[in-house]
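Q: Predict the bound structure with fe (ii) ion.
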Amino acid sequence: MLRLSYEDVFERVGALTELVTLAGSVAQIMRIARDPSGTAAKLAAVISRDPALAMKLLSTVNSPFYGLRRTIETIEDAVVVLGFSEVERLSLAISVMKHFSARTIRGQAVNQLFMHSLVCGIAAETLVECFQLRGIDSDDIFTAALLHDVGKAIIWQAMPDAAREVMAVMEGSHLSQFHAEQEVLCGANHCVVGAWASGEWNLPTSIIHSIQMHHTPLEAKNDVPLLKVIHIANAACYHLGFPAVKTKTAPPTAAYESCAFLHGNETFMQGFRTRYEAKRALFDSLA
Ligand SMILES: [Fe+2]
Ligand SMILES: [Fe+2]
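A: Predicted complex:
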């Protein structure tokens, strides 16, 4: 029965060179995309430093999803055509997907977690629109949702042995992934790991906070609307058929129970379906 100490967990996470690479591109892209004095040339220069990201970004921009009439040949052109926010979202999705596709993760699990993260983003945006929620920076919603479970990908990558043990504990019990991680990682879990990494990447505080508390929002000291949205959107993903991981048992969380009403809310479901259909082609071109 494998158990890692809290210190072991962070020693292994800290040794991951991939986190530094992801930090280098994503944090800088977000900073420039959100800087009022940032220019398309500056943003393009940062993206171009990561050739794999730049290539994937160009092929996605030229995919049928965007339906552009002419071929976009440079990153700067892509920034001008799509806008800063869309390029930020796209770059993040590509970088995270790349990160999720680590060799240590089984192919099916990669897709499952990535789809869960993307659907969480769609559900979160739909919740904000449908219930007219205020006080949330619209640029943060998709980013926070996309990254809310990034700690799971990091755990898979940094400690595949422990990740397999977490799965075994889940399969042999009624524990959720969060609680199985707490047992195997001696109190650590994907929320604290994800929050640690996003702190290293200098992401906005509200996003770090949402990643850290998305399973325990009642323990949050401050009232952060973004956290509530991510918490509910995450639970909604299970009702919508996009769990982060397939298990025999339903996730035994209060949030899961309390989100059942969304399934019967026609405005929410309609908004979700429309958004999901619109993004389907984008998922295909990213995968
Ligand atoms: Fe989670
Ligand atoms: Fe999740």
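A: Residues 116, 120, 148-149, 234, 244 surround fe (ii) ion (ligand 2) (CB under 6 Å).
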